[in-house]
Amino acid sequence: MPSEYHCVKPRSDCSRPSLQWYTRAQNKMRRPNLLLKDIFKCILLVFGVWILYILKLNYTTEECDIKKVHYVDPDRVKRAQKYAQQVLQQECRPRFARTSMARLFEHQYSVDLPPFVKKGPRANEAEYKYDPPFGFRQFSGKVQSLLELLPEHDLPEHLKAKSCRRCVVIGSGGILHGLELGPALNQFDVVIRLNSAPVEGYSEHVGNKTTIRMTYPEGAPLSDFEYYSTDLFVAVLFKSVDFNWLQAMVKNETLPFWVRLFFWKQVAEKIPLQPKHFRILNPVIIKETAFDILQYSEPQSRFWGRDKNVPTIGVIAVVLATHLCDEVSLAGFGYDLSQPRTPLHYFDNLCMAAMNFQTMHNVTTETRLLLKLVKEGVVKDLSGGIHCEF
Ligand SMILES: *[C@@H]1O[C@H](CO)[C@@H](O)[C@H](O)[C@H]1NC(C)=O
Ligand SMILES: *[C@@H]1O[C@H](CO)[C@@H](O)[C@H](O)[C@H]1NC(C)=O
Ligand SMILES: *[C@@H]1O[C@H](CO)[C@@H](O)[C@H](O)[C@H]1NC(C)=O
Question: What Pfam families does the record point to (predicted)?
Fold first, then answer.
């Protein structure tokens, strides 16, 4: 059975842990432990469904290898680079992003929202109003013990000291490939990267500076290389075991076997960063993005995923950037669903059509929001996937 797993599963990075789980679980099963047996059956079922899902994805979509199919007009490359330089040379306007958001989303955007969860005697009520990811209701104990481990909860001093900060949020969009914007992106004060989007091998197009790596546990890069020059690791916590994972990462401990079973893919086992580099995203920013700005309905039941009311991490990062920075730019944003055979990401073989299989996010609504932000001049779109100004 394990060797079959090995062959069937298309992602080699996922095959190792399942094997490990299997053998470990099997050792324990020699003891007559019924509960463990049930858990094991349940895991097998989940794995089966997951494999079917992946296979379905692979059979119904073609591969879109960006290095083979992607051609970018050299004139467009020049225009994109020129536009990025223009954006960088414009005067930086203090508080511009925040005040523009407050003007655009009257009563729906809070100018003073702290970006990261802080330790403090007065617990912030808004942070505990909703279940994750919109709040930490019923997790106050876990949050407090995590905060005990985190010595810092703000931007690092050298960034805080700047009177005006320019941020760029780098999305994973295939549109970023070929524009050779790397050197321009490196010039921003704060570079926000999402989930596992890699730098290694792509720095010509995506730069090699990472101020913030924002991710949930399953998205955290597995390669140490991606952390070498990372200032902040910002954790987005969705479920109970995410708190356990973060605690293990901060303490540089091994994640217990039973905790690992609850993740839907392999999670990083070590994050090579000191505790002072870790932050927890303020869940109120997700709540603000979802319910106030995107106007999604609040969770109706425990199965909130079905409501499509969870914003993508990309849009959450854009809203975070407006709270952290004075000027905000985007690169690598925009899913053009009318082009199903174009590459979805700048770093893998998925086609745009794969986006039609996801069930968590409402891409149409998100794109409308980003379009509004670009057209109103609140953010600049450096790769032109949302609205091209070059
Ligand atoms: C980025 O790449 C440049 C040139 O290759 C190198 O000099 C620089 O040290 C790199 N920076 C980081 C943060 O890795
Ligand atoms: C984590 O622990 C390992 C040894 O288990 C050590 O080599 C490594 O430097 C530690 N990492 C951090 C960030 O302290
Ligand atoms: C996305 O949201 C819009 C309203 O904001 C709704 O009309 C549409 O049906 C939603 N799409 C999906 C796929 O849920």
Answer: Glyco_transf_29
pLDDT digits (tens, 9 = 90+) for 47-78: 766 665 555 555 554 688 777 766 789 999 99
* Candidate CATH numbers 3.40.50.970, 3.90.1480.20, 3.40.50.720, 3.55.40.20; the one for domain 61-381: 3.90.1480.20
Residue 271 CB neighbours (<10 A):
23
Which one of 292, 296, 307, 364 would you pick to mutate in the ligand 3 pocket, going by the greatest count of ligand atoms within 8 A of its CB? 364
pLDDT for the residue numbered 6: 34
Protein residues with CB under 6 Å of any ligand 2 atom:
252, 272-274
Residue owning the nearest CA to atom 4 of ligand 3: 365
Q: ∠142-143-148 over CA atoms, to 5°?
A: 100
Instruction: Measure 252 CA to ligand 2 centroid, in angstroms.
Output: 6
Question: Which residues line the pocket of ligand 3, CB cutoff 6 A?
Answer: 308, 362, 364-365
Which SS3 state, helix, strand or coil, does residue 387 take? coil
Could you tell me the residue ranges of all domains in the chain? 61-381
Closest residue by CA, ligand 1 atom 3: 208
Strands (E), 285-390: 327-331, 379-381
Contact 5, 11 (CB under 8 A): no
